[in-house]
């Protein structure tokens, strides 16, 4: 039996271990850090050998194939040693796709991919398709292929997951947009990050589709010197497109992919804001390609609830609206958030900077932001960037302190927005932990 080693004992690693075992591999899982007890119990229940707190190289460097969890960089010493021995190192997405005949829809992009993935799943599920959802969201793709029998999957795919594909090809691929993110993982070379996103289409054929943002400059620049075999379907909020989707008169979305226009008033879409109109366009194009009934599409667009930690309205406390946008871990995400603010805003920002250029949002900050609360271990870059732009800037060492300071700045009819532009790992376990602490702190204002 082929020997499969899995590096990383999180959702993707444990799911791959279960699928690998089911497919007849000899499986060993190794995590340099501690594995959560919940995952350890799953591994024990399936009699899958594992280790944590370090790597036993003699067990790893004899592998025939290695699945690397997306959080492990290629620069990790164990990965370098595997490359030196020419042992294939792939992602969960690649491994799982070789053991599944189900059609996939792959959605990537710097911003909007979670919302687009969730909305697409909502529309397809309500439209009667036997559809799973995975990738960078929910239960792992591998675990679902091992334990369920979905006819199709919609997968949220990060650049890290796409770095580890070899032959994977989604039937429908989406690149929502591209802006600088995770540059620390790409040697601070934006071109490498852009190329990683476009790996989603590298194996597609003439029978497949690539949906892309016609307004996005990095995407347009990539197409000037690169090609794909997939059928191209653009979407735009700035201009009319002949075949694809566009925003008409700021009031309706027009979808034309089969010579018959589907027109949907933006008032009839639960997700508001121009960035969400783009997310909706992607999802509607997908479900139209998969022949979902128009009546189902219209009703489902009205009932969709957005993703947690993405412009999530938490509470209105004494006339001040609190919004949790903890998933905004880059400047481009913050741009969308600030652009959607309709009232003076107190902005909670900060964390682990990933190479941000704050000039991209400077004009929006001048227009929308009345005060800033910096929430990070090192806030120097933020203070240097905005110290001469916003009159009131405060620092906070924890979320309760940040919310208290923001409340002190905010007045009736205004907004407090947590939209950090940074990774969370200096003060929090994850962006989810950061968002939940924000919501808890806001709840505490009522007590």
UniProtKB/TrEMBL annotation:
Protein's organism: Arthrobotrys flagrans
Swiss-Prot/TrEMBL GO biological process terms: cell division; regulation of cell shape; tetrahydrofolylpolyglutamate biosynthetic process
UniProt domain Mur ligase C-terminal: residue ranges: 309-422
Residues spanning the membrane: none
Pathway it works in: Cell wall biogenesis; peptidoglycan biosynthesis
Domain Mur ligase central: 107-286
GO MF term list: ATP binding; UDP-N-acetylmuramoylalanine-D-glutamate ligase activity
Signal peptide: none
Family annotation (InterPro entries): Mur-like_cat_sf, Mur_ligase_C, Mur_ligase_C_dom_sf, Mur_ligase_cen, MurD
Localization per Swiss-Prot or TrEMBL: Cytoplasm
Pfam families in the cross-refs: Mur_ligase_C, Mur_ligase_M, MurD_N
Protein name (record): Uncharacterized protein
Chief location category: cytoplasm
Domain of life: Eukaryota
């Amino acid at each position: 039996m082929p020997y499969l080693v899995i590096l990383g004992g999180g959702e993707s690693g444990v799911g791959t271990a279960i699928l690998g075992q089911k497919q007849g591999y000899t499986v060993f899982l190794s995590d340099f850090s501690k594995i959560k007890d919940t995952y350890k119990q799953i591994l024990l229940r399936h009699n899958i050998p594992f280790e944590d707190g370090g790597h036993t190289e003699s067990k790893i460097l004899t592998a025939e194939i290695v699945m690397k969890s997306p959080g492990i960089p290629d620069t990790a010493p164990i990965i370098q040693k595997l490359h030196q021995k020419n042992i294939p190192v792939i992602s969960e997405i690649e491994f799982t796709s070789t053991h599944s005949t189900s059609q996939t829809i792959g959605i990537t992009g710097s911003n909007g991919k979670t919302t687009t993935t969730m909305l697409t799943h909502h529309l397809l599920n309500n439209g009667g398709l036997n559809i799973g959802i995975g990738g960078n969201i929910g239960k792992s793709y591998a675990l679902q292929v091992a334990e369920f029998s979905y006819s199709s999957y919609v997968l949220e795919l990060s650049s890290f997951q796409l770095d580890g594909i070899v032959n994977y090809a989604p039937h429908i691929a989406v690149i929502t947009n591209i802006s600088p993110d995770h540059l620390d993982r790409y040697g601070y070379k934006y071109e490498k990050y852009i190329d990683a996103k476009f790996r989603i289409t590298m194996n597609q054929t003439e029978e497949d589709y690539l949906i892309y943002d016609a307004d996005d400059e990095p995407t347009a620049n990539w197409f000037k010197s690169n090609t794909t075999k997939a059928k191209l379907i653009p979407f735009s909020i700035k201009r009319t497109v002949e075949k694809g989707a566009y925003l008409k008169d700021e009031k309706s979305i027009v979808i034309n992919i089969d010579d018959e226009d589907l027109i949907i008033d933006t008032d009839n879409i639960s997700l508001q804001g121009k960035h969400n109109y783009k997310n909706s366009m992607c999802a509607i194009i997908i479900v139209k390609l998969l022949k979902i009934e128009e009546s189902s599409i219209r009703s489902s667009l009205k009932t969709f609830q957005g993703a947690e930690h993405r412009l999530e309205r938490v509470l209105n406390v004494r006339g001040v609206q609190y919004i949790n946008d903890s998933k905004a871990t880059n400047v481009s995400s913050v741009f969308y958030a600030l652009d959607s603010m309709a009232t003076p805003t107190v902005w909670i920002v900060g964390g682990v900077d990933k190479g941000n250029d704050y000039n991209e949002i400077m004009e929006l900050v001048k227009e929308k932001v009345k005060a800033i609360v910096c929430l990070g271990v090192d806030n120097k870059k933020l203070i240097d960037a905005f110290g001469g732009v916003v009159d009131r800037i405060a620092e906070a060492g924890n979320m309760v302190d940040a919310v208290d300071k923001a409340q002190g700045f905010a007045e009736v009819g205004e907004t407090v927005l947590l939209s950090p532009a940074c990774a969370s790992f200096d003060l929090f376990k994850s962006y989810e932990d950061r968002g939940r602490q924000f919501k808890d702190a806001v709840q505490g204002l009522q007590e």
